[in-house]
Amino acid sequence: MQIDLKQPVLQKNDAIAAELRARFAENHVFVLDLLASPGSGKTSTILATIDALRDEFNIAVIEGDIASNVDAEKIKAQGIAAVQINTGGACHLESAMVKRAIDVLDLERLDLIIVENVGNLVCPTDFDLGENAKVMILSVPEGDDKPLKYPGVFQVAEAVVLNKVDTMPVFNFDRAAFDEAVRQLNPRAPIFPLAATKGEGVDAWAAWLAERIRAVQ
């Protein structure tokens, strides 16, 4: 006998995600789920995105980590509401966790919620959080072969951010091969090259996101 434990977990997760999606839609809030490996620059990308959009939109951040509140404190230091979720070892966020975080935010005052998922290229792809879009961040030092090794995360992403492009000369990163691999997996996903800590390339990424936010308002 084989017992499938994953399906009941996903069914419960999806039911809560549907409730969240309805709440977000009712309040005209766009929710972005950021997926990436540890060290890819998720938090620096979030900070750059906040700088680019904060004059037009009210933003909050949900930080998912196995432990600590380091990233949430960085966000709060910029005057942005941030809620920390510590999974205690789980490799992904689930909709029930996000629901608890949402309950402490004032949805009526928000336009954008950025969810920084736990650093992982596998587990988070299966879990709907009620988000409007999942976006994948890959950094140049991780290598151009990641779409071949982790196709699932690239397939679910509505856009791909290629971070730390300023390090391209240092690493043997084949940009053409990377772009082609992404197009094969997900031809509709735009690729945004940027160097988040330097602000390079952020405008194009922020413009794409701003258009999506306005569409739900």
H/E element string? HEHEHEHEEHHEHEH
Query: What is the CA–CA distance across the termini?
Result: 50 Å
- Determine the mean pLDDT: 92
Helix content: 25-40%
The secondary structure category is alpha/beta
Beta-strand share of residues: 15-25%
The profile of the biggest β sheet is: 7 strands, parallel
Number of strands: 7
Shape: globular
The oligomeric status of these chains comes to: single chain
Strand order of the largest sheet: 3-2-4-1-5-6-7
Plain-language structure description:
The protein is α/β, with parallel strands linked by helices and 217 residues long. The chain contains 8 helices and 7 strands, in the order H-E-H-E-H-E-H-E-E-H-H-E-H-E-H. The protein has helices spanning 6-26, 42-53, 70-76, 95-102, 146-149, 151-156, 175-185, 202-215; strands at 30-36, 59-65, 81-86, 112-116, 133-139, 159-163, 191-194. Helix 7 (175-185) links the parallel strand 6 and strand 7 (191-194). The chain is globular and about 45 Å long. The chain starts with 5 loop residues before the first helix and ends with a helix.
List its salient traits.
alpha/beta, 217 residues, disordered N terminus
Question: Secondary structure elements and their pairing?
Answer:
Blueprint: H1 6-26, E1 30-36, H2 42-53, E2 59-65, H3 70-76, E3 81-86, H4 95-102, E4 112-116, E5 133-139, H5 146-149, H6 151-156, E6 159-163, H7 175-185, E7 191-194, H8 202-215
Helix pairs in contact: 2-8
